Amino acid sequence: MNKTIALVASLTLPFGIAVAAESGPDATFAMKAAQGGLAEVSEGKLAASKGSDPKIKEFGEKMVSDHGKANDELKAVAQKSGVTLPTEASKKEQDDANKLGQKMGKDFDEAYAKMMVKDHEEDVALFQKEADSGSDPNLKAFAQKTLPTLKEHLSMAKELQGSSKNK
Fold first, then answer.
1. Does the N-terminal or the C-terminal CB of the chain have fewer CB atoms within 10 Å?
2. pTM
3. CATH homologous superfamily of 2-165
């Protein structure tokens, strides 16, 4: 009888850990980071194709590349931590991208630059919180590693926002 209980416990324990990891601040971070990363890639593709300013197009391509890599890395980290990530951006982010996609020319460039500043300010705050106080070592390390790139993106987005207003 004791062997049966031990077997059941050994089989259910990993699932219990996965279920526990699906909730709480670390899982919330992973979910938000995944949705945000997916949105950045989608919006970056829009900017690369619809931007009228070559700097907007270039920044969009950088977002696709950098956030695509980060998304792949986050998938692997989340899997180790027992967190199942969403496969698409949030409804709000999808709606924002649809509104952006309806703009053209200078209006598109200004809206994209403004969106990137706002998104990256939120990203930096989210990743900084996880880097400082995350309890899952895998997700915390991912946040710490990714944070400098997000800060660089924010700085670049602010530059773009300034230059797109001046044109």
1. N
2. 0.83
3. Ferritin, core subunit, four-helix bundle (1.20.1260.10)
